[in-house]
Structures are given as C-alpha cells and as structure tokens.
C-alpha cells in the first residue's frame, strides 16, 4: 500500500461520493465507508486501488466467464470499432457481427431455438419478453391471454418490466410494482420453506402452485410462466428434481409459454451451454446476457423457439419494439469472440467434467463447519446457508446480518463472495483452475472461522 495509491483512492472516493449514484446501494452507508475502487483485473483476480488482491468468486456479477484480461476480446472490439463502431438494426438494416452472432447462438442453443432478438442487457431482454409474449398472443387473436406468472424471490432485472417480473418485495416497494398482469407464486426453496417435508414432494407441490394459479386466474388469461432454471440473485435456489418436469407438464397442458431466464445460467455455468439443458426445460423464450460477452461489453438477447419465431415472422407484422443498441456491432463482435473462446478452450466441458465436480466436492467439505446448515451447487455455482443450529435451521442473527459479516471477512481475506441474506454464494469465472478453487475454498473457510469468532465475541449483539 503506497502513499500515492492512498491519495488517489481518497480522491476517487470523494469524487464518487459527490457525483456517482450507485445501483443497489444505500448511498448513506456508502458515504460513511467510501467505495471500494476496483482498478484492475487479470484471470480470476481483481485488485482495488489500494493494491488489495482478491479472487473474484463472482465473475464480476455472474458474467466474466473467460476471465479478465483477454486480449482477444479487446482486439475484437478494437478491430470492429475501426471498421464499423455503430449502426442500428432498425429499418431493414443489419451488420456482419450481429448476423454472425445470431447464427452462432442458433448453433449453440438447444435445437428448437434458432432466432435471437438483441438487447443491451438482461433487464432489456425481459422487457422484450414481456412485449413479445403479449404481442404473440394478441396477434393470434387471444389478447386476453396476457398475464405472466412468475415467482417470489425471482430476479429478472431492474427495469419496470424486469423488476415486476422479478419477485423481490423490496424492489416492488420502490415504484409501485409489479405493473398489472404479473403475479407471483412461491419458489422451490426447500431449505428455508420446506420444513420437514421431503424435498421432491416439496418441489412437486411448489410446481403445482402454477397449475392452481392458472385455474384461479382462468386458463384463457394466462400467457406465460417465467423462471430462472436456478435462481441466482435470489440465493442459488436449486429446485428439487421433481420441479421442472412438473412445470413443463403444466405449461404444455394449458398452452402457456415457458420462459427460461438464462441470464445467469447461460453459457456454461451449470456444465451445459444452457441451464435449460441441465434441467430438461424446453423454453419458448430464453433471455440471455452477462456471459454472452463475458461482460466485456454490454449485450443481451432473447432467443425464441421456432414455433414462436415462425409465427411472429410470418404473421406478427411489425414488432414495435427495439433498442438503439440492439445488435450493436462492437458488442456483437466481442460476444462472438467470447463464444469462440468458450468453444475452443472447451470451457463448458471443463465445467462439466473437471472443475465443476471438483468445486462441488470441495464446497461440500464446508458443510462440516459449525455455522453451515447446507451446501448446494451445480457446475460452477455454489451456495451455503449460515445457521446457528443445523437441525432447526435457526439463523445466527436477524436480517441477514451474519451474511453481511461473513462477506466483509471474505473481502478482507481476499475473496469476493456474495451474501444474499444469510446465503453465501460463489459463481467464479469458468476458467478457474483447481489450484484457484483450492484457494477459494480455504479463503471461504477462513472467513467462516472469522465470522464464528466475531459472533462469539459479540459482533452481532444488539
Ligand atoms: N435475469 C436474471 C436471471 C439476472 O440474474 C437479469 C435478468 C438482469 O440483467 P441486467 O443485465 O439488466 O442486470 C439478471 C441480473 C446479484 C445481481 O446481486 C444479479 C443480477 C444483477 C444485479 C445483481 O446477484 N442479475
């Protein structure tokens, strides 16, 4: 930590405090502490402006699949920006990188998904879904089929439609959400809500809430069901095996469109290209973003099933929806190169066969820690539940305070680990090695030890 770095950090923090409003941040809290200024990154590591190095267990925000510092991606952006930095995809226009990316996505996605509508983010993708779902049914003469069923504690973004589709109560409270025509059923979160029930029966019961809700609303009113294959931001909620087959059965029975939000699970995270493959889901719409470009440039999209795409293309008329940056050439060029890297380096296979099983095995070892009530995960995404009592699942403190404490120790110990309430979770870059996984686990264990010691010393006493 040198003097110069310190001065710079303080100056940056002051300017940040004065001029920069942050997402999902209590600005008052931030003003007291000052932001952590992240100033460089390489591989699976990030550094803050004071030179503190951290293993990025969250791949940025679930996005940096190929790791930081990839020159190929910088080069792809540079070359494309010189050739054609921007043009729109409206008014009968297109551009080579967007076309090639659309073709590549059709190749990589499950067989029945061969079309993509480009956006700039996951939230925009879900806004697109809402518009296209309703447009689809309306143009089929079924305008009353407009309600979308989602789940409590789902995350689908932060735009008005994204936050409405999401099931985060604290987000709904700001801004009078959800907008009309969106309803939420319970999530398949066995650890917190399943009590003594058998997990598979619980999964079935939670899926059957969809059927009950459809019947309650009236079959002819329900347009679609949206869900993440596994809930990411909600705390890596992995549904019991019974859940998805039952959801699929219900959607088919009532002719309800199925939307699998793959913004987090897409591009290898679960050991397949898409979470839909891992869980046997056959979606009509598949929102994507994040690892599509490894976060190097903002880009997202919605993949459409052949039946929906065919209808919209042949019968739907003009789509009165789109974004300035839909099919952005530089972002598309970076995404295309990113997907080539994932393919060439066989990262999906690596997650499925090597690093995924290894991380899961090592993560499970944390279950023997006195404050860990459950470990769970798939591929390269994992979560653990902090508890006081492993049997009753009683929490260490109210309001996710133990999670916040543990997260702070992780940061001190050089690990970025996310806390969602009392759930600690990781989702590292897909390029992480076995040695780096060992480092992640030992830093996680150290942070759990520190959390326990601090609690024993009264850190969470009122
Ligand atoms: N769908 C899902 C499943 C997501 O996880 C979005 C849509 C929205 O994407 P954009 O690109 O608009 O942010 C997301 C985003 C967290 C966290 O704390 C997760 C997300 C965003 C912000 C925070 O885990 N996921």
Question: What do these coordinates show?
Answer:
The protein has 462 residues and is α/β, with parallel strands linked by helices. The chain has 17 helices and 15 strands. The strands form four sheets. The chain has a four-stranded mixed sheet with strand order 1-2-3-13. Strands 6-5-7-8 form a four-stranded parallel sheet, with helices on both faces. A four-stranded antiparallel sheet has the order 11-12-15-14, with helices on one face. Strand 7, helix 11 and strand 8 form a beta-alpha-beta unit. Helix 5 (96-108) packs parallel to helix 14. It is globular, with a radius of gyration of 22 Å. 3-[O-phosphonopyridoxyl]--amino-benzoic acid is lined by residues 61, 121-123, 126, 155-157, 162, 228, 232-233, 261, 263-264, 289, 418.
Unreliably modeled segments: none
Rounded mean pLDDT score: 96
Using the coordinates above, name the CATH class of the largest domain: Alpha Beta
Helix/strand/pairing category: alpha/beta
How far apart are the first and last residues' alpha carbons, in Å? 34 Å
Largest beta sheet: strand ordering: 1-2-3-13
Q: What fraction, in percent, of the residue positions are helical? A: 40-55%
Q: Largest beta sheet, briefly?
A: 4 strands, mixed
Architecture per CATH nomenclature, i.e. the level-2 architecture of the largest domain: 3-Layer(aba) Sandwich
Strand content: 15-25%
Question: Considering the protein shown, what is the CATH homologous superfamily of the largest domain?
Answer: Type I PLP-dependent aspartate aminotransferase-like (Major domain)
Compute the number of helices: 17
Count of the domains: 2
